[in-house]
Each structure stands twice: as structure tokens, then as C-alpha cells.
Write a structure and sequence with these properties.
With 333 residues, the chain is α/β, with parallel strands linked by helices. It has helices at residues 25-29, 36-43, 57-72, 96-104, 120-133, 211-215, 225-246, 264-274, 285-288, 295-305; strands at residues 8-17, 21-24, 47-50, 81-85, 110-114, 139-147, 165-175, 182-190, 198-199, 222-223, 256-259, 314-321, 325-332. It folds into two domains: 8-175, Thiolase/Chalcone synthase (Peroxisomal Thiolase, Chain A, domain 1, 3-Layer(aba) Sandwich), CATH 3.40.47; 182-332, 3-Layer(aba) Sandwich (Peroxisomal Thiolase, Chain A, domain 1). The chain contains ten helices and 13 strands. The strands form four sheets. The chain has a five-stranded mixed sheet with strand order 1-7-6-4-5, sandwiched between helices. Strand 12 (314-321) and strand 13 form a beta hairpin. The chain is globular and about 55 Å long. The structure holds acetyl coenzyme *A.
């Protein structure tokens, strides 16, 4: 369908919201047996943002979305669909999407959440692409938003140093004629056999929320770091190659890779496997850490703001998250 559709799906606006509070590696040294040097060398992270008490995934998503809507010149009533990519929903239900709909006043939009953690935005893009290219809908908001700080075990130095809070949004529009611009393809994958590699084990579906489980820290993130690292490098590389091959393109055609920001070493390894020069890779993990489902849209917005994405450029997005889930998107700007 991607090639035969008479329609294109274009990103016409992007936006971000980052909470004000900055937590530096030096701050973490005060409460953890860690060091700024270790964190920088092993992850590339220097600082991350932490949401204020009255902020949540939905409030941050609304702010990022308003910025994207402004650039796209899209009013709330024009949104046909809101896809919120989050692994830290405001409450169990209703969806964070419904809170975002309310916050924006998007009365004509169907709203829901995607749970694919760090791959969430790629999953969201793939759904938007299908609705727009099929001609079914005209305007879709895809927004990643996470308050990772609320699911961290702040005593676990191997995980809590990695993550941060934030939101990133994109407005996608259907264009009536086939255009060389827009989303060329999306590819998404998952492997549930590796669910335990990276997870928040406590949950309402398997057993009741209990103070014992809370004491055992079942509601905080657990990660097999080394195994996740290897999976991320392998799957992000594979997904990037899949995107290029599907479109009959080669690495030399790529203007900029906007990868999921999980670890600078992962990004460097993926670029090396793809034989892409590092200057064709966008990195902002130093400032925000891993913001999970928000990382790719934040990076996409900032790469545009920095003038690194120009008309006609080919942007390659690739990412991996808990699930495991992974995927890629190729966009002609
Ligand atoms: N400060 C100091 N020492 C530390 C810290 C810390 N913050 N954390 C771990 N260490 C120690 C370990 O205890 C270990 O000590 P030991 O040798 O005495 O046992 C040593 O450092 C080395 O630990 P490793 O785990 O081997 O370190 P590694 O180089 O693998 O880095 C890291 C760990 C950063 C977690 C890395 O494995 C990683 O980035 N993994 C992938 C994360 C990721 O990609 N997540 C993706 C998706 S996220 C999502 O979907 C939500």
C-alpha cells in the first residue's frame, strides 16, 4: 500500500516540552555510589529533566502538542486522531490520550495510547501513516510523553541514571496528491519472549497492587542492561537497513539519522554498523537522558530547530524499546 497510495503523509509541525528541573550527574553523586565521569563515559548523559509534582504525561504532551500545532497551523478541532505514546500513563484508565484531548479541546479526535515504550513514537507514526495514506483521515497528532522519574528505583544506580522526563509531538497531514515528500515507510516489530529483559513487573492485571509489592519495588523499572544494549544495537541496525532496502535506497542517501536516545554508545555502534558518519547522526541524550517514547520526537524537533533537516533531506529514524519492540521510519522532508 505504501507505494500505491495516491496520498502522502507529511509531518507539518513538531514541538517539545521539557520540565524545568534539571538533575545533573553531580546531583546524583550526592545520593548514589556513582560519578559524573562513569555516567558520561558509559552513557553520554550529563543531565536529565524531572517533572514537577503537578506535571504528568498528559500535561507535558499538551504543551508539546500546542507547539507542533502552532507550526502546522492546525486548530484543535481539526485533529482527527490523537495517538499518545507513553509507558507512564497518568492513570490506569482512561487513556492519557483522552486527557490530552481534553487539554487541547480536540473535540473531533479519537484519542488513545500506544504502549511500545521507547519504540512508541515509531509505532504511532506507522498507525498515522496508514490512516493518512488510506485516505481515511486528514490530520493526526502523534505525541510521546513520559514521566520516567516516577517509575525509577532511585537506589538502583544501574537504571535511574539513564532516564528523564519530557514530551515531543508531531502533526501529520494527508496530502491529496502523491508527493515525493513525507513518510516513505515505517516498519515495526516485537519479541515478547524478551519481555523480562526490560520491564516494570508489578501491575494490576497479574496481581492486586499491594504494599508488599511496593516494598519489593515491583512498580519500578528493572533492566538487564548488557542484554538490552546488545539487542538495541542489533535491532536498530536491522530496522534501519530494512527501511533503506524497502525503498531501494542506500546509506549514502541518508541526510540524518535520528535514533532513539538510549545510550550514546548504542547510537555510535548503530552508526558504525550502518557505516554512517557520526555527523549524520543526531544526539541530544547528553541533555535529557533516555525519555523513552518522547526521545525520538524531541530529537526530531531539535534536529529541525538546529537546521539539520532541510527541504528534500532523507531522515532515518530507528529505535528499540521494552517489549522488546523496535522499528524504523524513513521520511523525505
Ligand atoms: N555508577 C557507577 N558504577 C556503576 C553504575 C553507576 N551508575 N551502574 C553500574 N555500575 C557498575 C556495575 O555495578 C558494574 O560493577 P562491577 O563490575 O563491580 O559489577 C560496572 O559498573 C559495569 O556495569 P555494566 O552493567 O557492565 O556496565 P555497562 O557498561 O553495561 O553500562 C548501562 C550499563 C549503561 C546500563 C548499559 O548496559 C546500557 O546502556 N544498557 C542499555 C540501556 C538501554 O538501551 N535501554 C533501552 C531501551 S530503554 C526502554 O525501552 C525503556
Amino acid at each position: 500500500m505504501t507505494h500505491r497510495s495516491p496520498f502522502s503523509a507529511q509531518i507539518v509541525g513538531t514541538g517539545t516540552y521539557l520540565p524545568e528541573k534539571i538533575l545533573t550527574n553531580k546531583d546524583l553523586e550526592k545520593t548514589l555510589e556513582t560519578s559524573d565521569e562513569w555516567i558520561r563515559a558509559r552513557t553520554g548523559i550529563e543531565e536529565r529533566r524531572i517533572a514537577a509534582k503537578d506535571e504528568s504525561s498528559s500535561t507535558m504532551a499538551v504543551k508539546a502538542s500546542l507547539q507542533a500545532m502552532k507550526e502546522a497551523d492546525v486548530a484543535a478541532g481539526q485533529l482527527d486522531m490523537i495517538i499518545v505514546c507513553t509507558s507512564t500513563p497518568d492513570i490506569l484508565y482512561p487513556s492519557t490520550g483522552c486527557f490530552v484531548q481534553k487539554g487541547l479541546g480536540a473535540v473531533n479526535a479519537a484519542a488513545y495510547d500506544i504502549s511500545a515504550v521507547c519504540s512508541g513514537f515509531i509505532y504511532g507514526l506507522s498507525i498515522a501513516e496508514q490512516y493518512l495514506k488510506s485516505g481515511r483521515l486528514e490530520t493526526i497528532l502523534v505525541v510521546g510523553s513520559e514521566v520516567n522519574s516516577r517509575i525509577m528505583d532511585w537506589e538502583d544506580r544501574s537504571t535511574c541514571i539513564l532516564f528523564g522526563d519530557g514530551a515531543g509531538a508531531a502533526i501529520l497531514k494527508r496530502t491529496e496528491t502523491q508527493s515525493p515528500k513525507g513518510i516513505l515507510s515505517t516498519h515495526i516489530h516485537s519479541d515478547g519472549s524478551k519481555a523480562e529483559m526490560l520491564c516494570v513487573p508489578g501491575g494490576i492485571g497479574r496481581e492486586r497492587i499491594s504494599s508488599l509489592a511496593a516494598e519489593q519495588k515491583q512498580y519500578t523499572l528493572k533492566m538487564a542492561g548488557g542484554a538490552t544494549f546488545k539487542s538495541a544495537v542489533k535491532r536498530m541496525t536491522e530496522a534501519a537497513i530494512e527501511a533503506l532496502e524497502f525503498n531501494g535506497l542506500v546509506k549514502e542517501d541518508v541526510s540524518l539519522m535520528v535514533p532513539h536516545q538510549a545510550n550514546k554508545r548504542i547510537i555510535d555502534a548503530v552508526a558504525k554498523h550502518l557505516d554512517l558518519p557520526l555527523e549524520k547522526t543526531f544526539v541530544n541524550i547528553n541533555r535529557y537522558g533516555n525519555t523513552a517514547g518522547a526521545a525520538i520526537p524531541i530529537a526530531l524537533h531539535e534536529s529541525r530547530e538546529e537546521g539539520r533537516v532541510k527541504d528534500g533531506d532523507l531522515v532515518l529514524i530507528t529505535g528499540l524499546g521494552a517489549g522488546l519492540t523496535w522499528g524504523s521510519a524513513l521520511i523525505r522532508w
